[in-house]
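Q: What does the assembled structure look like for these inputs?
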Amino acid sequence: MNIRLFTTPICPYCVTLKRFLEEKGVQFVVINVLEDKAAQEEMIEKTQQVTVPVLDIDGEFIVGFDRKKIVEKLGIKEED
Amino acid sequence: MVYDLAIIGGGPSGITAGIYAARQKMKTVLIAKSFGGQMAHKTVDIENYPGFDKISGLDLIEKFENQLKGKNVEILSEELHAIVKENDSFKISFEDGKFINATAVIIAAGAKPRKLDVEGESEFLGRGVSYCTTCDGPLYQGKDIVIAGGGNAGFESAIFMQNYANKVYILEYGPEARADEENQKRANENGKIELIVSADIKKIQGSAFMEKVVYADRVTGEEKEIKAQGVFVQIGYSPASHIVEHLADLNQRKEIIVNHDTMETRTPGLYAAGDITDGFLKQVVVAAADGAKASMSAYKYLQSKNG
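A:
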């Protein structure tokens, strides 16, 4: 799976999502869209939104920490 | 699963309650979708928490969180559905249908950003409208933006946005800015920030993304507009108290009315702490102290029940 996390430097929701992915052992690349303008343009174009965090899972862009969607897409098993 | 204590909220009050509960060896669960509460969203550093001359909200909450994680407190990151009192304990259910039981509950769910409640606000959410300056602000580099609200949060957002935006307008509903002198002075230091008072925001307009904010001048009645690509709403917070409104008394601002010595609500075994309460000072240090008091009161309550 090719997973990218689009973030800005001090965004609390980005930190929460990053920690969640790390805790679940997901391999992903973090992109700071403040520095990577091409990635910022791509993110806005794909989502039609100006907001972070955004998670790109194999070309599917998920806006915000949408836990249900992320868990489903990544096939993460949650404990009972 | 039955716990002695369930704490709802991962801000300074919830975390402090957790630390105290662990020290009393209560079987405790802390339920929070994320840690930090409003503190994690602060655009400026915290300079009034003892022990730190200056520290960012994110860094301070990380220290809180790390301290909690070393204790024997279970952490659940679930979306809450309902809390009901059944017989002598509380049943806490989650969006996914699961539930837990607890003998005592501390609600420390804080407050959520208040909305403008104007035309276009929902339509352009994420497409110009934002409630999180620290998240989305950096995406507005070189753009003109509006901050709705001339209190401290609005001015602090404007000062933060000076680093990114081309021009920052602060629209304040009242006849003058409500921010303290220090924030107003800092906002005047470079010419990027313009304060417009007596401005009643009426609508947000655009096409694919927002393009302008329309407001009424409350003195002349004239309708005016500002061309802007973003609006950051900073007009205060609404307490997240609806989940316990059937168990606790609320004041006009929907804050939970508590006994400020014990943090008790009107329902035995239910305590509230932090910004969700009717305490007058909404500060990190106060929220932490509330959490400590609530936790110790819950401990006494459990002792009294266990004879």
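Strands of chain A lie at 3-7, 29-32, 54-57, 60-63.
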